[in-house]
Design brief:
Elements lengths: L2 H6 L13 E4 L3 H10 L7 E5 L37 H7 L3 H7 L6 H14 L3 E3 L2 E8 L4 E7 L5 E6 L1 E4 L3 E3 L29 E3 L3 H9 L3 E5 L3 H12 L10 E5 L20 H8 L3 H10 L1 H4 L4 H14 L8 E4 L2 E8 L15 E7 L5 E6 L1 E4 L3 E3 L6 H4 L27 E4 L4 H4 L9 H13 L24 H4 L10
Parallel strand pairs: 1-2, 1-7, 2-3, 7-18, 9-16, 10-11, 10-16, 11-12
Antiparallel strand pairs: 4-5, 5-6, 8-17, 13-14, 14-15
């Protein structure tokens, strides 16, 4: 860490003093990666703000035994700068865990450890400030700077100026329309306090699962929606809450619109969709084709790890020894089309005390409808980027596409009115322009380095020109084969 970074984080910097070179809004893994790579860059003044009191990464799904779906090398910095002091390996050294990690021979680390690693970095970077909720972002044409207003923990208001801004506000939980009227009052990913316990709750998002898992385990029937990793982990956790014979604990029903509970694509060549090469190829496609590709490539980013699917199978196998029927059901290719409070008796009385639901489901391929009764629903139905309210003062200067999304260039810069001379960047809000790697941690450090180089106006952190063996798209006419793939060269003799 450098002295200039300590002074840049002072209260006067960016307000009455010299504007920041870069102001980040939101401190999730992606903006934290950018803050870490920017730390120590001579002459670059940065500040990152987050409304939460401290760093927290998907707290509702930090379950025991769950692991990151990418290798530990996809930390905040290593894929761009392995010499950075903010690497995961340096975190292990700081916590005297290098030998235990070495002996564990783990390529995929526990999620809880990744969360702790990110908190370790966030607490030590002087450019990161928590408890600072940005309420407005506008463009000051006269001074040619962005002005961001944020609230302090004490209720005060501070205005900060910056020449460039990067949005890393993350995504928000998505719940199917029929279930939204029955949502629990648990903010979850937004960082608020947990809502009421599921005894009086019908639906909650998986982002809030951990806070309610004990109460859910006490119910007689729980339905999990979503065929991704989160849905699989919630279903597995609930299964494990049944007793050894599967008699106690809830009946577990796992529903998903996807045609199968399928493993995530994890072949070595298949993973090259998460390289800069594929990002460049994807950006060159027409918008309609890009949108269609994202839907078709669901198994690249919405599948389940093979290990989790195997563990689910093992749990079900154990529960059927001796011919016993499992207290579980798996239904792919099913969507919930309607939901209503569960009826208690033939007279139509509503089971208000139990808080259950009657779900009307439709099998997508057969077109057949059926109903299930359940005590609660855990919607592991993903996340989506949102337009933050603080952006409204600037919204008229953003060049939105036909669907109200950002237009994002190769440096992750948002298209603005030509009169705006400052740059606005986004992280994890560009899947429609950059492909399935947008939310993936694999490309996080590379994207942060790309933005940092654009902000600095020079190659502060070198990024590779080629990273894949695959040639995405047609080869250029006349190009020899050796020019189309990276060819390793032997090291020169010393």
């Amino acid at each position: 860490m450098t002295d200039h970074h300590r002074s840049a984080a002072g209260p006067s910097a960016g307000s009455a003093g010299e504007p920041y070179d870069l102001l980040g809004v939101g401190i999730g893994p992606f903006n934290l990666s950018l803050a870490a790579l920017a730390d120590g860059v001579p002459g670059l003044r940065t500040c990152f703000l987050d409304a939460r009191p401290a760093f927290s990464w998907h707290p509702g799904l930090l379950l025991e035994g769950t692991v990151l779906q990418v290798p530990f090398l996809a930390d905040l910095v290593t894929m761009a700068d392995p010499t950075s002091p903010w690497s995961f390996l340096n975190y292990l050294r700081a916590h005297d865990r290098l030998f235990p990690f070495f002996f564990a021979e783990r390529f995929h680390i526990p999620r809880r450890e990744y969360d702790h690693y990110c908190r370790w970095v966030a607490e030590r970077l002087p450019s990161c400030r928590f408890g600072a909720e940005v309420t407005a972002l506008e463009w000051d044409a006269g001074a040619e700077v962005f002005v961001a207003e944020h609230r302090t923990p004490g209720g005060g208001r501070v205005r900060m100026r910056a020449r460039q801004v990067v949005l890393g506000v993350g995504t928000e939980p998505v719940v199917p329309e029929p279930l939204r009227p029955f949502l629990a009052g648990a903010p979850g990913a937004s960082g608020g306090s947990p809502g009421p316990a599921p005894a009086g709750v019908r639906v909650l998002h998986s982002a809030d699962y951990r806070a309610h898992r004990a109460a859910l385990a006490a119910l007689d029937d729980v339905t999990v929606l979503g065929a991704g990793q989160s849905g699989a982990e919630v279903a597995l956790d609930l299964l494990r809450r049944q007793d050894g014979h599967g008699e106690g604990g809830p009946y577990v029903r796992w529903l998903a619109r996807s045609p199968a509970f399928a493993p995530m694509e994890y072949s070595k060549i298949g993973l090259e969709h998460f390289t800069p090469d594929y990002v460049r190829y994807f950006r060159g496609l027409p918008a309609e084709r890009r949108d269609r590709l994202v839907r078709e490539q669901w198994q690249l980013y919405k599948g389940v790890s093979e290990e989790t699917l195997a563990e689910l199978h093992d749990e079900l196998y154990e529960r059927t020894i001796g011919g016993a029927a499992p207290r579980a059901a798996l239904h792919p290719g099913v969507e919930v089309v309607a939901a209503e409070p569960r009826v208690r008796d033939a007279g139509g009385a509503v089971d208000a005390a139990g808080g259950g639901l009657r779900l009307v489901c439709r099998h997508v391929e057969q077109g057949a409808e059926f109903a299930v009764r359940t005590s609660a629903v855990v919607a592991a139905t993903g996340y989506a980027p949102v337009r933050p309210a603080f952006l409204e003062p600037l919204a008229g200067l953003v060049d939105w596409d036909a669907q109200g999304r950002y237009r994002v260039d190769g440096t992750y810069r948002v298209a603005l009115d030509p009169a705006v001379t400052g740059a606005l960047y986004v992280q994890n809000a560009e899947m429609h322009t950059h492909g399935v790697g947008a939310p993936d941690l694999t490309l996080g450090a590379w994207r942060a380095a790309t933005i940092l180089n654009a902000v600095a106006g020079k190659a502060v952190v070198p990024v590779p020109e080629r990273a894949a063996w695959t040639t995405f798209g047609a080869p250029e006419p006349g190009a020899p084969a050796s020019a189309r793939v990276p060819v390793p060269r032997a090291a020169a003799p010393r």
